[in-house]
Amino acid sequence: MTSGLPVPSQVGHAGISSLIMDPECSQLLPALCSVLADPRQPVADDTCLEKLLDWFKTITEAGSSLLLLQENPCLLGLLCHVLKPQDLSPRVLSFSLRLAGMLAAQEDCFQYLQQGELLPRLFGEAGPLGGAAWTAPSVRSGWIQGLRSLARHPSALCFLADCGAVDTIFSLQGDSSLFVASAAGQLLVHILGLSLQGPAEGHPGLQTGDWPVCAQKIVSHIEESLRSAATPQITQALNVLTTTFGHCHDPWTQVLWGRLSPLVACLLEKDPVPAAHSLVDLLLSVARSPVLSSSSSGLWETLAQTLSHLSPTQAGPLALGILKLQECPQVLRAQAFAVLLQPLTCVLEATAQAPGLLDSLDGTGGASVTVDTLLPSKAACVGLLCRTLAHLELLQPLPQRPSPWPQAPLLGATVTILRLCSGSATPTSDAGGHLCAFLVGCVRVQRAALDFLGTLSQGTGPRELVTQVFAVLLEYLTSPDSSPTVLKKAFQATFRWLQSSPETPGCSDLDPHAHLFLRELLPVLPKRLCSPCWEVRDSGLEFLTQMIGRWGGQAGFRRALLASEVPELTEQLLRDPESYVRASAVAAMGQLSSQGLRVTPASPEHPGGQQKSLLAELLHILSTDSEGFPRRAVMHVFTQWLRDGHADVAGDTERFVARVLQVASQDLDWEVRAQGLELALVFLEQTLGRPSSHCPYAVTPPVAAPPSSLAQALRPLCRVQLFEFAFRALFDCDRPVAQKSCDLLLFLRAQTASYGGPQGSGSVPEVASVEAALQRWQAGDQGQPLGYLEPEVVVAVLRSMDLEGLRGALAESSDRVEKSPQSLLQDVLATVGALGEDEADCY
Amino acid sequence: MKLYCLSGHPTLPCNVLKFKSTTIMLDCGLDMTSTLNFLPLPLVQSPRLSNLPGWSLKDGNAFLDKTELIDLSTVDVILISNYHCMMALPYITEHTGFTGTVYATEPTVQIGRLLMEELVNFIERVPKAQSASLWKNKDIQRLLPSPLKDAVEVSTWRRCYTMQEVNSALSKIQLVGYSQKIELFGAVQVTPLSSGYALGSSNWIIQSHYEKVSYVSGSSLLTTHPQPMDQASLKNSDVLVLTGLTQIPTANPDGMVGEFCSNLALTVRNGGNVLVPCYPSGVIYDLLECLYQYIDSAGLSNIPFYFISPVANSSLEFSQIFAEWLCHNKQTKVYLPEPPFPHAELIQTNKLKHYPSLHGDFSSDFRQPCVVFTGHPSLRFGDVVHFMELWGKSSLNTVIFTEPDFSYLEALAPYQPLAMKCIYCPIDTRLNFIQVSKLLKEVQPLHVVCPEQYTQPPPAQSHRMDLMIDCQPPAMSYRRAEVLALPFKRRYEKIEIMPELADSLVPMEIKPGISLATVSAVLHTKDNKHVLQPPPRPTQPTGGKKRKRASDDIPDCKVLKPLLSGSIPVEQFVQALEKHGFSDIKVEDTAKGHIVLLQEAETLIQIEEDSTHIICDNDEMLRVRLRDLVLKFLQKF
């Protein structure tokens, strides 16, 4: 088979290899090989072997493996050496097998290795396969991966056939190590694909009888496995087919499916259906394959049959898969949807909801089977319901979701599930009683149902159902039994439903319905903010922040909020012992203050006394809080305030920015410093009179006419010491900060250029001293401050700096030096102490 | 074996178990819900209370809920499971002719004493000039206003006991430790096991050699302060009597503690006071511990906490010294220089202050806003009455009910109209139904006996099938004043053999592994213990004595007939008969064996599996001959 193939020319390659492997590495390689070949010097670290393989891979992909071997005979030496009977570690053996496979991927190199009979000795019966080393899973895995790399050309196929590797791979499919078993399956798929690439291509009508021997052997093995009574074997066969159809859409796959589909159909006749999960995966893979789904007759019938044969738990994923298909017969989609909805139908039936709801949910008579699945055990019931809800949640936003989408029954069922979980639903049958007993207090189902309920807010529903939704949400938000995670989900779902509730025409306030709800919700919120459980306080604050962000400007909401204790409590939570809560409180207070919702009542303790301003309080947190989260939150609030022209800031913006930058520059948390740069950028944009490009919706404060001269424009920036902050950040030990600062300075330089003119005529000695200081900073000595800088000096320094170069250097990953192959080789040698000098220490 | 059920209150049980000639009372809880029919006893004469229309000021007594189902003087022992379940003890030990012993653990007795002392103190410090009892007459009772009119068996309501009676009752208690085995008259053994509900709370095992009854009352699987529940020892019970489950199965204690803290913080932040009507021991320790962790985070460090009870000091101190009865976590603290409960630190830092009553030091220290823990949870007596009157008018204040024993709405009735906020956060750490079903699966008793309330969902939530005991076979339920025959029969009794008698036995192996020996002995029964003693030797006739011992004194000493075993092979028997000259033998098969007919002699030999009859008319010679022939085929020993 290989005789007709062109043999690559071996001339004209001289010199290429030196491009691939630098001389330093070539020099180190013999020492490495001898270390690897020496059983007395075990390589402690698997990862360096993996890195070595990665390196060899890039080398072999870029150039000729044959040359590599010829130029570095030590590699061949290593491969020969591992075959000698000795006590070599399995990881080195595995490494050698994978290396050999990698090298033999090129046909010329394969032939070269074949000449020395090296490959049969490595991969054949005589090799590790028959030895004691085979018991190590890493060796079996290396053997498979080696063959996987090797099998690239027709010669390899012959080799595989000759050395009987395929039979070994068959047996490895059932290996005790899952990694090995899975790799074996994938190798089979690969070999099948390789063997059919040449001859079968372009002949979709070809019979399998005309296929290459190797392919026929694999197909027969799959057939045999499918006929087997043992589930593991069936699973293996199904997995191989799933991978094949998932990866390859060549016409021959059609022939293969044509031959095997009757056997797969036979599996459906067994009770219970063996390897149901794998079967579902296979059928979905077939249905997704463009070649198979368009041509194969009977696929849709098989899918329909499978849907009705599998248990509700197993059929769920199949139904979801079918509904996600782009093209699929309507009847099948309807059947799949009915299967998916069955558990919810049972729930509705168990609580005897209005019959109208049931009709639209259930078209088939499968519900009794589902009841049987739901009721025997709590675990089964909870599992099935959670999966069903998760499937429907995935389906809801898809364009190909079933239409008409049964929004109302789904809402009804979800609300019922939630009420069963809280014990407030009244079951009307024995089944309902059981369901109630299983679900009461079940946190898993509550979470899944609340997630799905939130998703359902995207659609509308009948008025009375929406009322029920809000009622059940309120029940969860009020109940002392709601666990913190459930409560968080309830808050999220509530926000989504409030968001989607229709706005009153004419004004953008909440609709009266949601208003009523809010009136009941607001008394609950203070209690949640006082919860002993910090997660609850935190999610309460997050919810509040979202609410203010959305409705802070609406009169009705403002009135309700101001009448409650919420604003005051939120302020108290700025001093919460839990840092996450403090951070959320900072965000919420920022929002409250932005919307003018911060109350400053004369408290009994300070009658008529001046309350500390929020700005001062937040600055205090920024400079003293021991945790990073609250400080980051403060920086976000400040940036937002600056952007929005918040009253507290607008009074004396320069003083505010100067103060914040000064505190932020000392912060140990790089995110705070990075956020400081963000704030600096906003200030810069506002000062230079350019509308902010970052937030198109931000209200820019009325800016005075653009300053006439560059010096005038830069003066405010100099006054707030923005440059000192930015330059310091430029040499920050944390790369993101330095990058951000570099971007900011580049932006500034571009801005200054737009002013044009021969500016930057600052006195030379001053510029030189600044540059000298910056160099010291870069060297790590950031002690000395720059002091006040004149705009001219700044411009001169900016222009003289190689900011682009710096940006390039920063863009490279920081470990580029450590990742070089030379460093890797040195590391490997160093760990085993083979770098020379200390050999004498042993004696 | 019978169970007499004297209380209808599932969490304040009182049952009597008759088992192997012993009469054991299991708990004697005092149902005080009837106090809700009375007006509060104010510390200061309250014009408002005394002028309420339609209410007549009666004396506030405590009441006993018992029936004349059984003569209580016959009770041998009383087993107490926790301090809440012993509040009726003085009524039983002092007024019924009871002469037995009471068993309880030390913390149960000490804290039980505190509860009784507090109760007596609350009642006695507001003495009544006169007491009325004529109204208990049925004809007059009919004329009374509604709740009193409908009250049942008011004639059994009693005055509160005195401290003297308490002391006398407590003196009859014998202290026991967990897993200690106590023999009762040699008939049964009782053992207390940790039940995890309160300091020293116990479940009891009552067992004989072949029967085991477990009594589970007031147990908890939550990690609170007491030692965890011992479940393993409850395994293999024939009967498990299950009482004292949570009274609020729908409320999760953790959620309720959260609710308690949130409401407390909200009230105090707004300048209001919080009143917590409570018992002086139990949940209050856990609440103080939660608050200890919570007050700093909630910014409440400056708010004073007051604990007012005649026994407040003792209660707080006792809790710290019962190290061996605490959960493991707290036990280990004993070896560190810190007390097991953090309320010690609260006291040290002056955040928690305790007073015997609101008179005296308290009135000078009192600072508002504050949090007050005080009794009694019924709001009918104790210092709580004063605080209700004091704070009830302001909507800034909050009363938080944590004890589930009384309906909070009924408790509040005489204080209406009330501006104060009322929060109901019942904290009941006793087993809920999910935990019970796990427990029953784990210990697998043959039969479960429980109050009838537990065998059906609560009336208000009839759909909650999860709020009832679900076990196989279904639990047997009892109600007040019912006698239950427990469904198992005693089959075996253990008998000991004296060593010298055992020595004289010569067992013969009749089947591999099974040996038999005949025993001749005297069965001696004393203190419910049975012993086989060697028979007295036949007395030698002594000429010197005139009177012989009557021979029927030692009937067993006559020549013993050997015992027979084996079966008779019919064919060989017939051959033997023929050999001995019998002819004309006919054999008939019957359902149970064979009949051998000797027609000439008009004689029948009926051979069955376990008997052989020779029927012949008046020919004793023949019968003896035939008998000897039969005996040849049997083994003798």
TrEMBL record, chain A:
<dbReference type="InterPro" id="IPR016024">
    <property type="entry name" value="ARM-type_fold"/>
</dbReference>
<comment type="similarity">
    <text>Belongs to the BRAT1 family.</text>
</comment>
<protein>
    <recommendedName>
        <fullName>BRCA1 associated ATM activator 1</fullName>
    </recommendedName>
</protein>
<dbReference type="InterPro" id="IPR011989">
    <property type="entry name" value="ARM-like"/>
</dbReference>
<dbReference type="InterPro" id="IPR038904">
    <property type="entry name" value="BRAT1"/>
</dbReference>
<keyword id="KW-0963">Cytoplasm</keyword>
Automatic annotation (TrEMBL), chain B:
<dbReference type="GO" id="GO:0032039">
    <property type="term" value="C:integrator complex"/>
</dbReference>
<dbReference type="GO" id="GO:0034472">
    <property type="term" value="P:snRNA 3'-end processing"/>
</dbReference>
<comment type="similarity">
    <text>Belongs to the metallo-beta-lactamase superfamily. RNA-metabolizing metallo-beta-lactamase-like family. INTS9 subfamily.</text>
</comment>
<dbReference type="InterPro" id="IPR036866">
    <property type="entry name" value="RibonucZ/Hydroxyglut_hydro"/>
</dbReference>
<dbReference type="GO" id="GO:0160240">
    <property type="term" value="P:RNA polymerase II transcription initiation surveillance"/>
</dbReference>
<feature type="region of interest" description="Disordered">
    <location>
        <begin position="527"/>
        <end position="552"/>
    </location>
</feature>
<dbReference type="Pfam" id="PF21382">
    <property type="entry name" value="IntS9_C"/>
</dbReference>
<keyword id="KW-0539">Nucleus</keyword>
<dbReference type="InterPro" id="IPR001279">
    <property type="entry name" value="Metallo-B-lactamas"/>
</dbReference>
<dbReference type="Pfam" id="PF10996">
    <property type="entry name" value="Beta-Casp"/>
</dbReference>
<feature type="domain" description="Beta-Casp">
    <location>
        <begin position="284"/>
        <end position="412"/>
    </location>
</feature>
<comment type="subunit">
    <text>Component of the Integrator complex, composed of core subunits INTS1, INTS2, INTS3, INTS4, INTS5, INTS6, INTS7, INTS8, INTS9/RC74, INTS10, INTS11/CPSF3L, INTS12, INTS13, INTS14 and INTS15. The core complex associates with protein phosphatase 2A subunits PPP2CA and PPP2R1A, to form the Integrator-PP2A (INTAC) complex. INTS9 is part of the RNA endonuclease subcomplex, composed of INTS4, INTS9, INTS11 and inositol hexakisphosphate (InsP6). Interacts with WDR73; interaction is required for the assembly of the RNA endonuclease subcomplex in the cytoplasm.</text>
</comment>
<protein>
    <recommendedName>
        <fullName>Integrator complex subunit 9</fullName>
    </recommendedName>
</protein>
<dbReference type="GO" id="GO:0090101">
    <property type="term" value="P:negative regulation of transmembrane receptor protein serine/threonine kinase signaling pathway"/>
</dbReference>
<dbReference type="GO" id="GO:0160232">
    <property type="term" value="C:INTAC complex"/>
</dbReference>
<dbReference type="GO" id="GO:0090287">
    <property type="term" value="P:regulation of cellular response to growth factor stimulus"/>
</dbReference>
<dbReference type="GO" id="GO:0005829">
    <property type="term" value="C:cytosol"/>
</dbReference>
<dbReference type="Pfam" id="PF16661">
    <property type="entry name" value="Lactamase_B_6"/>
</dbReference>
<comment type="function">
    <text>Component of the integrator complex, a multiprotein complex that terminates RNA polymerase II (Pol II) transcription in the promoter-proximal region of genes.</text>
</comment>
<dbReference type="InterPro" id="IPR022712">
    <property type="entry name" value="Beta_Casp"/>
</dbReference>
<keyword id="KW-0963">Cytoplasm</keyword>
<dbReference type="InterPro" id="IPR027074">
    <property type="entry name" value="Integrator_9su"/>
</dbReference>
